[in-house]
Amino acid sequence: MLRVIIINGPNLNLLGRREPEIYGEDTFEDFMIHLKGKFVEDDVTLEYFQSNHEGHLLDKLHEVGFDYDGIILNAGALTHTSIAIADAIAGIETPVIEVHISNVHKREAFRHHSYVSPVAEGVIVGFGLRGYELAVAYFL
Ligand code: DQA
Which of 34, 48, 62, 100 is catalytic? Predict the structure, then answer.
């Protein structure tokens, strides 16, 4: 049984209400039901964790990063600022796929740099919530 966790960072609890023209109208809780349904026949368990606090994200990465088979991480704006998250990913064993809902390269220049990308196994950007599904498919 493959164990995969989705970790979402700051402001992603507001999905569905936050800038829907960029991030869509689905809440992540509704999307998780859809996602679990897609992989119901597969040998995978999917968990979800969200926090607006950098330290809590670090604690979660440390907690799962030696046992789980895959981490799907959307660090939100911390992607562009957090050396601590990059160091945590470098320090754990579980591979991390970086996901962004929007195409950050089409947006402001400050979103073009990611501290996560150099330590991620791969990056999925700009496919909306489907990016998470593609990441699960990769781990499978
Ligand atoms: C985001 C892109 C980031 O630049 C932004 O700060 C977010 C969401 C995305 O999923 O498109 O919070 O990570």
Answer: 100
